[in-house]
């Protein structure tokens, strides 16, 4: 609703009415059911393209003998990762089903009362933390979407001589710095809107967006040093 001109119309179109109703719930339930199948389809398309064109070539080698086959090296590695993630998923679902839940979810829904400490699911807490740091409503929404969109820009930002982070020592340190920032923003998004969490969110939001530009310039400087 913060988007000028089309915001209110878009909200009512998504809701299917002037307020949240059964049509809204049915739409979101349908999206949650369809999305996993779409993701699986995209994974298979990705594997097909990877099999046809090949993956990245960090050393820019033109000789096939120096390249690594997708199978069995990468396929077995990915299979082990899938098994471990599925095992973790089953442990959480069967042994600790309420580990990532919120106590407010067990309260009776009341459309007339807004919960005191409303927050999204844990995997969106980092973006929610960034949203809360911007006083302006429209600015907060823009920064929220950009905080997710910036994750797609990171691979596209790689215009360096060597197409792999393992050859850039400083960028490897920056990468783990970025992971720590992401974890801290996720934790801060679940805290109350009060001091010192609000101040910490502002600092980590600034460093979150600073990572992309810093990594780009450091890689360019590293390339110049190698020359």
Automatic annotation (TrEMBL):
GO terms for molecular function: metal ion binding; oxidoreductase activity; quinol-cytochrome-c reductase activity. GO terms for biological process: mitochondrial electron transport, ubiquinol to cytochrome c. Keywords: Electron transport, Heme, Iron, Membrane, Metal-binding, Mitochondrion, Mitochondrion inner membrane, Respiratory chain, Transmembrane, Transmembrane helix, Transport, Ubiquinone. Pfam families: Cytochrom_B_C, Cytochrom_B_N_2. The chain crosses the membrane at residues 29-52, 73-92, 138-154, 174-190, 202-222. Binds 2 heme groups non-covalently. The keyword Transport applies. Its main location: mitochondrion. SUPFAM superfamilies: a domain/subunit of cytochrome bc1 complex (Ubiquinol-cytochrome c reductase), Transmembrane di-heme cytochromes. It is found in: Mitochondrion inner membrane. Residues 60-227 form the Cytochrome b/b6 C-terminal region profile domain. It is a multi-pass membrane protein. Its cofactor is heme b. One of its GO terms (cellular component) is mitochondrial inner membrane. It comes from the Eukaryota. Residues 1-59 form the Cytochrome b/b6 N-terminal region profile domain. InterPro entries: Cyt_b/b6_C, Cyt_b/b6_C_sf, Cyt_b/b6_N, Cytb/b6-like_sf, Cytochrome_b_C_euk/bac, Di-haem_cyt_TM. Belongs to the cytochrome b family. The main subunits of complex b-c1 are: cytochrome b, cytochrome c1 and the Rieske protein. Component of the ubiquinol-cytochrome c reductase complex (complex III or cytochrome b-c1 complex) that is part of the mitochondrial respiratory chain. The b-c1 complex mediates electron transfer from ubiquinol to cytochrome c. Contributes to the generation of a proton gradient across the mitochondrial membrane that is then used for ATP synthesis. This is Cytochrome b. The lineage of its organism: Eukaryota, Metazoa, Ecdysozoa, Arthropoda, Hexapoda. The gene is cytB.
